[in-house]
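Pilot study result, target chain (98 residues):
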Amino acid sequence: MRIPIPHSLGRDEARRRLQSRSGEIAGLFPGGMADVKVDWPHEDQMDLHVTAMGKSVAGQVEIADSTVTFVIDLPPALSFVEPMIRGAVEQKARKLLT
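Predicted structure:
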């Protein structure tokens, strides 16, 4: 699942805001019971490892000049929650960038 979030901050400012607020990433996932580990393998990519409801999900955040794209690899068993996760990520990701 790819969720692009447009912004007008520029790449450097978007990266700075995500790095400074990466501890809030767990709040992107509904239910508030997600454990999120964050890694920065590249300055424009944040890797996510999310554990919730007994399932593990991998993802990335790709930072570009005018978009931040959340890429979440949902296993087939969790495909039914995709609309809920998409909506929560779209709404809360915008707040991370403000």
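One observation from the pilot: Residues 2 and 71 are 5 Å apart (CA to CA). A full batch analysis is planned for the follow-on phase.
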